[in-house]
Amino acid sequence: MDEQTVARYWDKNASSWTKGVRAGYDIYRDHVNNPAFFEILPDLKRKTVLDVGCGEGYNTRLFSDLGAYVTGVDISSNMIEAAKEHEQRHGRGINYIVTSGTDLSMFDDASFDVVLSTMALMDIPDYNGCIREISRVTKPNGYFQFSIVHPCSMTRAWKWLGDDAHPKQYMRISNYFSLMKPEKEVEISEWYFSGVDAEIRNNAIKFRVPDLPNTQ
């Protein structure tokens, strides 16, 4: 799996994702992930902040509202286009750039007081390269905070189990510490925001996301 493939999938997801997020369908972000994430943030007022994997800019805008000078980067050009379109209509002074978290070469060393990433790093094939770049652009004594899907949901043997009527009754999780390659190098998950009404979910364009199992 390479970054260009990941970018293509998220480019295709961008329109449905943006509509859903801005309609308030990402309930787990709003009521679970973000409250925990924002509770432990440092004071961002007048800090230079980089948001890695910013998507269409939902959390990027929230960081800006806390008084930060924010730059958002994402590998999906369609996601960045949506973020820029929102910025043009509701200007916060956010700078958006199409690039991978593994290539922050447009930024000098020690450029940012704070680097943040919410639910994105697990979708980056070269995780180690991304962390190296984040380390490079973060100021000495700077701050890096991220959230990801729990690794127990990304093992090589992870699978929903059930029957034809109820295909998702049980979740199999095993080989948590395995260093073996996954049985299939690439599998595609198809899903939509699960916290919304079934009618909305059934009629929505599903997201198709490459699974990048934790094999390190």
Walk me through this protein's architecture:
The protein has 216 residues and is α/β, with parallel strands linked by helices. The chain folds into 2 domains: 3-147, Vaccinia Virus protein VP39 (Rossmann fold), CATH 3.40.50.150; 151-180, no CATH class. The protein is built from 6 helices and 9 strands, in the order H-H-E-H-E-H-E-E-H-E-E-E-E-H-E. The strands form 3 sheets. It has a 5-stranded parallel beta sheet. A two-stranded antiparallel sheet has the order 6-7. Strands 8-9 form a two-stranded antiparallel ribbon. Strand 2, helix 4 and strand 3 (95-98) form a beta-alpha-beta unit. Helix 1 runs parallel beside helix 4. The longest helix is centred in the first third of the chain and has 20 residues, at 3-22. The chain starts with a helix and ends in a 5-residue tail after the last strand. The model has no long low-confidence stretch (mean pLDDT 89).
